[in-house]
Design goal:
elongated; single chain; mainly alpha; 2 strands
Length: 96
């Protein structure tokens, strides 16, 4: 139902139960107001229950995986530590 709809039903029920003093003969507005308030409270509690259960975090089992060491390029028995990259930016005069 949602929190907004539940609060709306509670407010509407309170208006019918406490503020409206009309006599329709076949319909008692006090009873209608109390029923709407109870429906709003039930909807609010149900919504909060489902929101609370949705936020629970279940920890997944952790699997450890051995990863091979990264390959380091070797040149003439020396480890290459630097890498050169040419970056071309749009509008710098280079053809695309």
């Amino acid at each position: 139902m949602g929190i907004g709809a539940s609060i709306f039903l509670i407010a509407l029920g309170a208006i019918f139960a406490f503020a409206v003093d009309a006599n329709l003969g076949w319909l008692n507005l006090d009873v209608v107001g109390w029923v709407l308030m109870l429906a709003g409270v039930a909807g609010l509690l149900t919504t909060l229950y489902f929101w609370n259960s949705r936020r629970r975090v279940v920890a997944a089992p952790v699997r450890e995986q051995v990863v091979a060491e990264p390959v380091v390029p070797v040149r003439d028995d020396r480890v290459v530590r630097e890498e050169y990259r040419e970056v071309r930016r749009p509008g710098s005069g280079y053809p695309a």
